[in-house]
Each structure stands twice: as C-alpha cells, then as structure tokens.
Amino acid sequence: MLAQWIWGARRSFIDVSFCGAVHVDSVHADIVVVGGGIIGSCVAFYLAKSGADVVVLDPEPGQGSSAGNAGMLVPSQSVPFASPATVAAWVAALASRDSTISFRRPVPLSLVPWFARMAIEARPGRARRATRNLFELAGKSLHLYQEMVDNEGIDLHLRPVGSLRVFRSVVALERQRRALDELAGCGAEFEMLGPRKLREIEPALRTGLAGAIKFPHDRSLDPARATRAIADAARARGAQFRAERVVGFQRAGGRVVMVRTDRGCLSADEFVVAAGAASAQVGKLLGARLPVRAGYGLSVTYPTGSPLLRSSVMLEEEHVVINSRESWVRLTTGMEFGGTAHDRPGAGAVRRLDAVTRAYVPTLPAHDTAQPPWRGARPMTPSGTPCIGRIAANVIAATGHGTLGMTLGPVTGHLVSSLVAG
Hints:
By secondary structure, this protein is an alpha/beta fold. The chain contains 12 helices and 19 strands. It has helices at 38-49, 65-68, 84-95, 111-121, 124-152, 170-179, 181-186, 195-201, 223-236, 279-286, 347-358, 405-421, and strands at 24-34, 54-57, 72-73, 101-103, 163-167, 191-193, 211-215, 219-220, 240-242, 246-252, 255-261, 264-273, 293-303, 312-315, 320-324, 328-337, 374-380, 387-392, 395-399.
C-alpha cells in the first residue's frame, strides 16, 4: 500500500476578501497547482491526462530546484534523511564547518523543534518503515517514467546504466555493505565490485580505489530537460503554465475557492500545493502547517564533448554525486540549512567540490570551464518522507520529497490524480 504522510496540518484558513479590488480572471480551472517544478509538472500531466482543466502557477516554471539538481532516479537512495546516521551527522555539523550537513551561521533557532522531530522520526523502527515505503514509491515511479517514454512518447533521455557507489576505503565499503541489509530486504538488487572489476566498468576513475557497489536499476536524466518535457506533455493535454506568484487564498463555505497571485485572481474546485521548499510559505497562506524546511545543495556543471563516465557515480565518503551526460558532467553535494534562496554558493565550497572530485576523476574538465555554480533548495521534512495527501477539503499537499524529488515525481503525480478522482 502506498502510504500518505501529513504532519500537523491544521484545517483552518485565512479568510480574506481581496479579489473585489483587483482584476478577477474570467477563467475558472478545475484544479490549480501551485509549483511548476518536477512535482508540479508531473501532477499537472496526470491531472490533465485524466481530463481535468489544470492551471499551474509558478514565478519561474521549471527554473527552481528541478533545474540544477543531480538528475538521479535512485531507488537505491530510499533510506530516509531521518536516520540514526543523519542525527550523528547533525551533531557533527554543529561543531564543524566541513561536514556535508552544514548550517549558515548563526544557526536558526527555528531549526531546533524541527531537528527534535527528526530525531524522533530517526528511531530505527520508524526509519525501517520509511525505507520500505520510499523504496516502493521509487520503484513505482521508475515504472511510470518508462511508461511516459513508451506509451506517451515523452522524450526524457533516460540513461539506463545504473549507478556506482565508489569507495576509497575497504572499511567504508564493508560498512556500507552491511548497511544495505534493509534495502536488500525491500528487494533492492546490487553487486559488490572489487578494484579490478570497478576499473573495467569505469576506466575514467583513478586506480587504487577499494571498490564499489553497483545498483543496476538506478537511472539518470537531465533534470531541466526532463521537467520541460513533462510540462510540455501536460500542455499538450490542455494544462496551462502561468508565470505568477501566489500571494493569498480566499475561502467560502469551508472550502478554498480562489487563489490570488501577483497578477490577479483565479477560481478553482481543487488546489494542490507542490511548491517544493516554498510549500511551507504557501501553507501559511492557507493556515496549514507543512513541516518543510529548505536544505540547500550545490552543483557545478562542466561542458564535455562526450560522456565523461559510463555510469552515474556517487563518491560515498565525499558525499558527491556525478551525473555524466552527452555534453556535460555535473557534480552535486551538500545539505545546508539556513540562509535564503538568494545566497550565492561559497567559493571555498566550490573549490573543495572540484578538488575532491578531481582526486577520483583525473580527466574532469578544467575548473575554469565550469558554468557558474548553482545553489538550490531541497524540500526537507523531519521524517525524510514526503507529504502527500489532503490538508483540507479541497487542498492537497504534494511536497517534502527531499533529495528524491526527481525520483518520486511521476508517482506523486499519479497519487495526486487518484486523490482528486476520489
């Protein structure tokens, strides 16, 4: 059974009569989706496919975290962010600026209750249940991605080469092998590779590595291109994408009836909150509490003339993901809490990412050829699992996917469509 996750949603709404003073759009939609990234685009696709009249509202559709992320479709990463290992990493991060999990100083006090909730959710029993749920969702989602290609003709450029978790230390490799018991119990398939086999599979990696774990069913794609393709498929079925910012809602008779944007008002029968890391702010406009915090990641993209690597590679001890495509290679790392979406990536973090990766991939293009670094907000929840479900009579949340937004996009759209259908 595919689970739903909602925490502390209050079924109350701000009742503001604002649309009498501004232009009221003459178009009434069946469903308004707030958010035009991979989740919002998948939601719009499945709703439009079912015959609904859909309008997607986003200041910059497809240009947020769906544009510069790692582009990985990874059932192998179904262990939730809330786990005993993550709690230990948080504690280490408070004392070190070099941890993969980091904080913009000063540490926001508002993170304290959120972290306390995460510590509760990280208990082994809960983490195991979350792993099973996420793995089931991820497997279904990859199947739906393939259906988009085979049945709908959507050009996603999926790269079906699997992924490699690479290790320089035998101790770390063995520790990770033991940690995969839970995923193996869910049905995950993987293969242990020694140094020689790793060299055969991925000759661009340096010699002297301890080995790797291969996950044959993982996939990769160009996230910006895939998001555009799915949005275009939704448009072809009648969905509208409008570059507008949501600033409020209006209700009547216990239901939300209208959304206000920076360009006017639009009425609808159903509303979906799929605004990624901004979902908590949208929830506040509705009077609903969504436990979503922004966890910022860093990526750097280098142009290449051909794929640099045969597989997608995760440098496990360095917490770096490498997605190698036909014309570029992208390095992704980090989980930073605090700050804002407008903060620029630190130059030191960018240099460290380049240096760490170059130690594994000597043929990485020159640093000065890289595109400007990208910093994007992941929608994190205390449990590490997404919020998918109704938070009011005619409002559905579809957010909080953390680092698995690209992986879980189609299954989220499918679930939301099922919820709307009843």
